[in-house]
Amino acid sequence: MGQQFSAGLRPFLPSDGPVLADIFREAIHVLAEDDYDDAQRDAWASAADDAEAFTGRLAGNLTLVAVVGGSAAGFASLRGKDHIDMLFVHPSVAGQGVGAMLLGALEKLATARGATALTADVSDVASHLFGKLGFEPQRRETVDIDGVWLGRTAMRKQLAGNNDKNTTPGGRQ
């Protein structure tokens, strides 16, 4: 049986930027090794090379930080009221429920903001977690990062409690 640990959530602080950038890079290089080649992982991880832009992206969203043992262990951000922009956990806590905890919290926040559905552009490595938590694949996509192509899946989850008869299938009124 896995090691038991205590995890908590707190809001993002601008001073978290460098630590979360490290988690972002480490998660991509370690956890996505079986799904993306070296060039793809390098291109993807380069989004954290501009520390100011990376921190600004997190600050511009509703970003939560997962804390395990007093240290940041993962993060997730909600763009607007209904789109999960980022979800990354440090490899040392992968598979221990940190990602599910972060997604659950964003789901509650999205519901409180009046969202009828959550959407996310999900990497191949994270698609199993999202699927397990009720997200359904909508379409396969590829994105170009500096001439390197990465595959991902657009996913969607209908939220309970905010269903409106005037809502379109895309979840927007």
From TrEMBL:
Residues 7-155 form the N-acetyltransferase domain. Keywords: Acyltransferase, Transferase. InterPro entries: Acyl_CoA_acyltransferase, GNAT_dom, N-acetyltrans/Recomb-assoc. Its EC number is 2.3.-.-. Pfam families: Acetyltransf_10 (PF13673). CDD domains: NAT_SF. SUPFAM superfamilies: Acyl-CoA N-acyltransferases (Nat). It comes from the Bacteria. GO terms for molecular function: acyltransferase activity. This is GNAT family N-acetyltransferase. It comes from Camelimonas fluminis.
